[in-house]
Amino acid sequence: xxxxxxxxGMPSPDDQHTVxxxxxxxxxxxxVADALLRTRLAEQDLLEAANDLDAIAKRLGDGAxxxxxxxxxxxxxRRPPEHDPAAGRRNMMAPPLRLVGxxxxxxxxxxxxxxxxxxxPGHVHGGISAMILDHALGVCNGYSGHAGVTGTxxxxxxxxxxxxxxxxxxxxxxxxxxxxxxxxxxxxxQGETCVRGRTVHPAEGHxxxxxxxxxxTELLEHAAGRRLLxxxxxxxxxRYPRNSFPAVSSPAGCPxxxxxxxxxxxxxxxx
Length: 271
Hints:
Shape: globular
Number of strands: 6
Largest sheet: 6 strands, antiparallel
CATH architecture of one domain: Roll
């Protein structure tokens, strides 16, 4: 998987980004959330503000897609992943983090975390640091051509991470060993490491797993007597999580499946 296929980050630090209308709405929402942390308005004024926000939410929701439709578009690569809580351009929770390539297997980015992300007074919540690194390491894997979801995330907090200052996020895919991808990263402030992270990702694109997914797809579709999956998943099953595939409690009605050995059946139906 290339960096472009991950849907995250820009290919070059020299690229200029123009703020879109959606991003302006997101930024306004973040300012509202920040102001709410600090406001001293009376209760009646807060109720009036809530009514105004309800009207805005209703306006934004008119004609909006439901979440199931969005998930289907994401699974078939027809929609960029703008939902992500670490980097999604449509997600008000996202700081957002922007990552760029810094070599064939490394990425670097910058993020400023405001008081919405506060844990210890004046410092970033440890769970937010974990989310930022989990995201950065996963995107780095996709950028380096080794897609996979997080299997294990290990964190080491070396010092408190300050709020409201530019932080540097670094990620590097260091090893691909069979079905395991090992990636490391860190969050820095002024060259000093605040948090380190390490992940082990199951290799989604491992040839044995790809073949098993293709065989499972073929068997389940044969059992159903029809095509169950869209072409994008059928062509590249390794790119999609297991829950993208149809749940079949017993494919015993498939003659081809019945001819397989018990061990082979278990292999095909395993994650």
